[in-house]
Amino acid sequence: MEILIAGCLVVLTALVHAAGFSALIRILIRSRILTKSGFPLATALVIGVTCWLILLHSAEICLWGFFYWWRGSFPDAESAFYFSGVTYTTLGYGDLVLPKPSRMLAPLEALTGTLVYGLSTGLFFAIASQWIGNWTRRLSVPESDATNPPNT
């Protein structure tokens, strides 16, 4: 039963992450920020993506924390969310542990956190690569060519 529960939590975490990625990509496309350049925009892009990803990971930590709290694995909500946070981020302080029947959930949460961090890192890299590529292509085009494209 614990493996089935863990599988559901993993799937829910992946769904939250996919929805968050989709929303972020739609925002980036609509805003056309990847086609613009300059230090203020680069700063805004990095800060915005960082905050969005932290919000997304925090929601995923809360998903696991709510489950632990609902299940009664810890005496209070703060302990459940704290445990989820240190497990998801793989800090693993060890000051709190799950009851024996549920202990296999912790390594699966840590593995899930590690995998979705990798996805977030990949997305961050892809966004930065796209933005930098667009910026450098624009800078390498002579001003006269950029303002007067050839007729085709």
Word description of this protein:
- This protein is mainly α.
- It has a domain at 41-137: Helix Hairpins (Orthogonal Bundle), CATH 1.10.287.
- The protein has 5 helices and no strands.
- The chain has helices spanning 2-31, 39-71, 77-88, 105-140, 143-147.
- Helix 1 (2-31) packs antiparallel against helix 2 (39-71).
- The longest helix is centred in the last third of the chain and has 36 residues, at 105-140.
Q: How many helices does DSSP assign?
A: 5
Helix content: over 70%
Count every beta strand, where a strand is a DSSP E run of 2 or more residues.
0
What is the CATH topology assignment of one domain?
Helix Hairpins
The overall pLDDT, averaged over residues, is: 88
What does the largest sheet look like? none
Which CATH C-level class of one domain is it? Mainly Alpha
The helix/strand series, from N terminus to C terminus, equals: HHHHH
Strand content: under 5%
Q: Could you tell me the radius of gyration in angstroms?
A: 21 Å
Runs with pLDDT <50, length 5+? none
What form results from the Cα inertia axes? elongated
The N- and C-terminal alpha carbons lie at a distance of: 65 Å
